[in-house]
Amino acid sequence: MSIRCLITAGPTREFFDPVRFVSNPSTGKMGFALAEAARAEGWTVDLVAGPVALPEPAGVMYYPVVTAEEMLRQTDALFGPCDILIMTAAVSDWRPKVCQTQKLKKNGQGLTVEFEAVPDILATLAERRRVEQVLVGFAAETENVEANALEKMTRKKVDFMAANSVAGAEGAFGRDDNQLILLGKNGFRQVLGPASKREVAQQLIRQLSHHLAARTR
Ligand code: CTP
Predict the structure, then answer these.
(1) Domain hosting residue 201, numbered range
(2) Is the pTM of this model over 0.90?
(3) Mutate which of 87, 142, 143 for ligand 1 pocket (most atoms within 8 A of beta carbon)
(4) Centre of ligand 1 from the C-alpha of residue 164, in Å
């Protein structure tokens, strides 16, 4: 069976002047590892990534973006034909209401920036999904990791949520290893890792592969 997989990775950035932005510490390692694992599984892979310092994985279609709006547009354009969407991207949830056209000059004072919410990409796409598409979110949590991830899975109407602890120095951002709790419908729960992100990615792709195979039997 030929599978088309759409993966988002890395952070997004929201600028408030030409040289300053808000973002988060995501490095894209988990999403890139998943793209490689999905490719190794024989899947066709589209990878939409925010600004990262990683080499482009071989054999995948690569779409670099910067802001949440760009990620939404690019992901939406690729969503229709995909069989699986895996959203590992750490979308920066707020953007400055105004982006100055010239660099802000210091005047010895503080700075107040007003923010507005960016679109929720996963929830937006879930509203447009075909029933047979499989949607996987990554919940970045600093507390009540599993309960919050389950709540997000239901609220965003997705099939699986990979619960990911991002609290403190032990958190997932930037590390080479990770542990995920993959949560699904009807109480499905599988711990992946702790292991290298490469291995955790292979385990996750294997789980999704089993899920797809079981559905078509
Ligand atoms: N997500 C998204 N668009 C956003 C925010 C998040 O598509 N604007 C996706 C992420 O890629 C991830 C899932 O939603 O797959 C959960 O992201 P997370 O950051 O854990 O949750 P949030 O919805 O941002 O909620 P909160 O920040 O309040 O925990």
Answers:
(1) 4-101+112-215
(2) yes
(3) 87
(4) 12
